[in-house]
Design goal:
- By secondary structure, the chain is an all-alpha fold.
- The protein folds into two domains: 65 residues, no CATH class; 31 residues.
- The chain is built from five helices and no strands.
- The longest helix has 29 residues.
- The protein is elongated.
- The relative contact order is 0.04.
């Protein structure tokens, strides 16, 4: 917008119109202005988050709610977990299989 409003008239006078301005040049100007607009929007959004106490309170509250609380477990109770029992059973079956293979080969 700045280029169009502040420099457009000067450009038209200097070059006797805007007919020689290529479409690529215009697209490039649109892309540049879109990037600048997005950057300004993002900076203002960050500024809102940083400067408003209500937003800061909600962020802290949200983090507190979403924080996972780890349970304390009794180490002796964990020794009897299903995974450990399953591993012990597999080891016993493997040992029995090896014993039966040894008995058949001798």
């Amino acid at each position: 917008m700045h280029s169009l409003l502040n420099h457009g008239l000067e450009h038209m006078r200097r070059f006797d119109g805007i007919g020689d301005t290529l479409e690529d040049d215009i697209k490039h100007m649109h892309q540049m202005s879109a990037r600048i607009e997005l950057r300004i929007f993002m900076h203002s959004k960050i500024e809102v988050v940083q400067n408003f106490a209500i937003v800061q309170e909600k962020i802290v509250e949200s983090k507190a709610i979403s924080t996972r609380v780890m349970k304390r477990r009794n180490p002796e109770a964990c020794a009897n977990t299903r995974a450990k029992r399953a591993k012990e059973e597999r080891d016993q079956r493997r040992a029995m299989t090896l014993t039966s293979i040894d008995n058949h080969t001798h």
